[in-house]
Every structure is written in structure tokens, then in C-alpha cells.
Amino acid sequence: MSADTIAAIATAPGRGGVAIVRVSGDLALSALEALTGLKDPKPRFAYFKTFALNQEPLDEGVVLYFKAPHSYTGEDVVEFQGHAGNIAPQRVLSALLKLPGIRMAEPGEFTKRAFLNGKLDLTAAEAVEDLISAGSESAAKAALSSLEGRFEERLNAITEKLTNFRVRIEACLDFPEEHEDFFDSGAAAADLAAIKADAQAAFDSANQGVKLNEGARLVLAGAPNAGKSSLLNALAGADKAIVTNIPGTTRDVLSVNIEVGGIPVVITDTAGLRDNPGDEIEAIGIKRALTELKKADLVLLMADRTASGEAAAQSLQQIKEQLGSDLKLLVLKSKADLKADPSFNAMMESELFAALPQISLSVKSADGLDALRKELQQALGIMPTAGVYSARRRHLQALQDCLDAVERCEWQLAQGDLVLCAREAAIAAEHLSAITGKITSDEILGRIFSTFCIGK
């Protein structure tokens, strides 16, 4: 752990009520005295002071002192809470950085010090950043759950079970003459099955947490005038896209942020797909539409029920050419309030479309929109968010590695090889410890905290 004292602005730049400049380290009290003249401050007591250096006033406001180890970082911490804006907090920070032994904090360094000083486990430290960047209320709740230690508690419970299991196995190895007296292979297998179920449940919750953080991407595709822009406006709850009866109205990509089942979703409207665009601008729009398809977690193919089935088939063929076998698609049969073209119904029942999920809807009457939202949740793998905690891709990988090790442990137990069985149980526990930070390399820590804001 660095002995440096660090400083940074902890609040967002721009106009506001209050800006906080934070200092952490052994020289925090010296910095407080240098800028305010205050000596021996009472911890957690607010003092109204003028901030100045070399008799030059910088700002005025409240200062707070948090004595180690009872602070966010576990070190001595001082906060200068002055006026917001772009100038005043920067002047205070610049003055602090002129003091000997104080340097600018690196991104996430305050939270990194909190982790290294045992104030937070790694899942809680990551949750700080997730809470700040949460794109939905559900994501914020999940991040707060991790920040409060729920994720760590769940992982620690599984680790404890793995440790107890390994202790029993190793006792058998150390005292083989008493093996039959206290070891039941059937009970051990049942214990492993329970551990595996717990780890799988943790994986499923973490997977949902990743979706809360990363969100999902939907792309609307289909022939011109199929109703894509109308659906975008309906899902967004506002007129985001221009809607006319003229085919080819949408010329460019238009993305809107919405929520589906508490998950932040970016839904993108694209130019109508057809082989013969009306002009060069529309042709560019179609090219961009095809490019957007590759970014989608799910493609919504708008198929106009009042048009020929051939138009829908042509759009599907263009989508397949872009995505190949990696096709995740939902067919939306639009304009359900109008009479369908006979060839359209025949096309939807044909071999080309029959295996694809289909929903009939009308944006005009709102029929089918609720069914669409439910289908989107299922297609995107969105579960109820109650009990979900914030998670990241590295957590998923570690949990999957844990599950793989438990499965190998089960196999070794069935083969009667208790040495390798105990080893796999230890490996499974190590993967869980990597999530909470009990076993973590400096390189991984550097990557994690480099994504944080500087003042966090």
C-alpha cells in the first residue's frame, strides 16, 4: 500500500450546490491545517472555514475530518465541502497539490485503498462504480445490494461449505484407519450436489446482475413502412422517430434508451430493407441498418401483415445474410388492426418462418404490446430483479470455473480418489475467493479500479 497522501475532486464537475475535494493519507490533517488554520479538529465534526493558501482565499465552506481507521479509505480523510462549479473546487485541489507529499489520486484510488485496508471486499468496491453508473432503478438497487455485502455473504456461505467438505475429506486421508467411522460417501455426494446448486443459483443471479449493468441491444428491422418507427415511439413513450406513410422515411440509425423488466435496453430504429433504394441517401441508410444487426442481442423483424409476404421474406433473407447461423430474432406481425394479405399469412406458415417466434401487434390500438414486453423479457433472459446483486463478467467466469471444479470434484468422489476430490474442492473455493478479493493479483486490481472516477 502506497504511503502517499492523495487528493481529488469527489463530485461531478459543473454547476451544483456543493463540491467536495477529498484528501486521504497521513498528511490529510496537515493539509487541513494548511488551508484552514484548524488544529486538532474533532473527528466527524463540521467546521465552517475559509479555504486559503499563503493568505490567498480560495473558497469557503465546511471541512470534515475522519480519523483512521473510521473513514471510507481506512486512512485519515479530510473533505473540503465548498461551492460547486468548474473553478472553485479546482482552485482548492490545485492548492492541495502544491503541498509537499500530496499528489493527485489515480482513478478509483480512494476505493482501492478502502479495499486494501479491509473496509470493503472487492464485490462491494466494484459496486461503488456500478451504483454511480447505474442506468436504471433496478441496476441501482442491485449495486446497493452488493455494496451492503449481500453478494459477498452468498459467496462466503458457499466457500464455507466447500471448506467443511474438504476438511472431512482430508481427515479421511490423514486418518485412513478411521475412514469408515466418520465418512459417508453418499452424504458427501449429497453435500456436493447442494454446493453445486448454491453455486448455480449464485451464477444465475450474477448473470442477471451483469445484464443490469451492461443492458441489452434491440434492433428494429424490416421492409419500408412496416411500422418500425411507430413501434419505437410506442416503446419509448414519446415521438422519437418521424412517422409518415411514405416508404423510406427513416434514412439513418436512431437509438433510444428504454427499460424492459428493469433492464436498460437500447432499441435502434433502422432504414427499411429493400433491394432497390430510392436514392443514394436511402442506400447508405440500408447499409448502416445491416451493420447494426450485428450489434443486436435480439433483432425485431417488423413484418407488415397488409403487405405481400414476399416483402417479409426478402427482409429475413437480408438479415440471415448478415448474421448467418447466429440468428436471434423475433418476428413482429404489425398492423394487426387491419386485414392481412392472404400471401402474408401463407408466408408466416411456410418453412421459412414457421420455426421463428411470432407476435401479432398493432401500435395504433396497442394490442399485443404487453405480450411483446413479456416476450422480450424471456428472449433476453430477464428474470425478476428481487434478490439480484450487481455483477461483472469476471464474476461470471469465476463462478463458472467454480462450477466446473465442483463437477470434477463429484467425478473424483465417484471414482474414490479422495486426494483429487479434495484438490478440486480447494480449487472451487479459490475461484470464489478471487471474486471477493481474498485471492487477487495486482494486475486484476489495476484493471478493476482504472475504470473508476478519479475522486472515488
UniProtKB/TrEMBL annotation:
<feature type="binding site">
    <location>
        <begin position="244"/>
        <end position="250"/>
    </location>
    <ligand>
        <name>GTP</name>
    </ligand>
</feature>
<keyword id="KW-0963">Cytoplasm</keyword>
<feature type="binding site">
    <location>
        <position position="225"/>
    </location>
    <ligand>
        <name>K(+)</name>
    </ligand>
</feature>
<keyword id="KW-0630">Potassium</keyword>
<keyword id="KW-0547">Nucleotide-binding</keyword>
<feature type="binding site">
    <location>
        <position position="456"/>
    </location>
    <ligand>
        <name>(6S)-5-formyl-5,6,7,8-tetrahydrofolate</name>
    </ligand>
</feature>
<feature type="binding site">
    <location>
        <position position="246"/>
    </location>
    <ligand>
        <name>K(+)</name>
    </ligand>
</feature>
<protein>
    <recommendedName>
        <fullName>tRNA modification GTPase MnmE</fullName>
        <ecNumber>3.6.-.-</ecNumber>
    </recommendedName>
</protein>
<feature type="domain" description="TrmE-type G">
    <location>
        <begin position="215"/>
        <end position="381"/>
    </location>
</feature>
<dbReference type="InterPro" id="IPR027368">
    <property type="entry name" value="MnmE_dom2"/>
</dbReference>
<keyword id="KW-0819">tRNA processing</keyword>
<keyword id="KW-0342">GTP-binding</keyword>
<comment type="subunit">
    <text>Homodimer. Heterotetramer of two MnmE and two MnmG subunits.</text>
</comment>
<feature type="binding site">
    <location>
        <begin position="225"/>
        <end position="230"/>
    </location>
    <ligand>
        <name>GTP</name>
    </ligand>
</feature>
<dbReference type="GO" id="GO:0030488">
    <property type="term" value="P:tRNA methylation"/>
</dbReference>
<feature type="binding site">
    <location>
        <position position="79"/>
    </location>
    <ligand>
        <name>(6S)-5-formyl-5,6,7,8-tetrahydrofolate</name>
    </ligand>
</feature>
<feature type="binding site">
    <location>
        <position position="249"/>
    </location>
    <ligand>
        <name>K(+)</name>
    </ligand>
</feature>
<dbReference type="GO" id="GO:0005525">
    <property type="term" value="F:GTP binding"/>
</dbReference>
<keyword id="KW-0378">Hydrolase</keyword>
<dbReference type="InterPro" id="IPR025867">
    <property type="entry name" value="MnmE_helical"/>
</dbReference>
<keyword id="KW-0460">Magnesium</keyword>
<feature type="binding site">
    <location>
        <position position="119"/>
    </location>
    <ligand>
        <name>(6S)-5-formyl-5,6,7,8-tetrahydrofolate</name>
    </ligand>
</feature>
<dbReference type="InterPro" id="IPR004520">
    <property type="entry name" value="GTPase_MnmE"/>
</dbReference>
<feature type="binding site">
    <location>
        <begin position="269"/>
        <end position="272"/>
    </location>
    <ligand>
        <name>GTP</name>
    </ligand>
</feature>
<dbReference type="InterPro" id="IPR027266">
    <property type="entry name" value="TrmE/GcvT-like"/>
</dbReference>
<feature type="binding site">
    <location>
        <position position="250"/>
    </location>
    <ligand>
        <name>Mg(2+)</name>
    </ligand>
</feature>
<dbReference type="InterPro" id="IPR005225">
    <property type="entry name" value="Small_GTP-bd"/>
</dbReference>
<feature type="binding site">
    <location>
        <position position="244"/>
    </location>
    <ligand>
        <name>K(+)</name>
    </ligand>
</feature>
<dbReference type="InterPro" id="IPR006073">
    <property type="entry name" value="GTP-bd"/>
</dbReference>
<comment type="similarity">
    <text>Belongs to the TRAFAC class TrmE-Era-EngA-EngB-Septin-like GTPase superfamily. TrmE GTPase family.</text>
</comment>
<dbReference type="Pfam" id="PF12631">
    <property type="entry name" value="MnmE_helical"/>
</dbReference>
<feature type="binding site">
    <location>
        <position position="229"/>
    </location>
    <ligand>
        <name>Mg(2+)</name>
    </ligand>
</feature>
<dbReference type="InterPro" id="IPR031168">
    <property type="entry name" value="G_TrmE"/>
</dbReference>
<dbReference type="GO" id="GO:0046872">
    <property type="term" value="F:metal ion binding"/>
</dbReference>
<feature type="binding site">
    <location>
        <position position="22"/>
    </location>
    <ligand>
        <name>(6S)-5-formyl-5,6,7,8-tetrahydrofolate</name>
    </ligand>
</feature>
<comment type="function">
    <text>Exhibits a very high intrinsic GTPase hydrolysis rate. Involved in the addition of a carboxymethylaminomethyl (cmnm) group at the wobble position (U34) of certain tRNAs, forming tRNA-cmnm(5)s(2)U34.</text>
</comment>
<dbReference type="GO" id="GO:0003924">
    <property type="term" value="F:GTPase activity"/>
</dbReference>
<dbReference type="Pfam" id="PF10396">
    <property type="entry name" value="TrmE_N"/>
</dbReference>
<dbReference type="InterPro" id="IPR027417">
    <property type="entry name" value="P-loop_NTPase"/>
</dbReference>
<dbReference type="Pfam" id="PF01926">
    <property type="entry name" value="MMR_HSR1"/>
</dbReference>
<dbReference type="InterPro" id="IPR018948">
    <property type="entry name" value="GTP-bd_TrmE_N"/>
</dbReference>
<keyword id="KW-0479">Metal-binding</keyword>
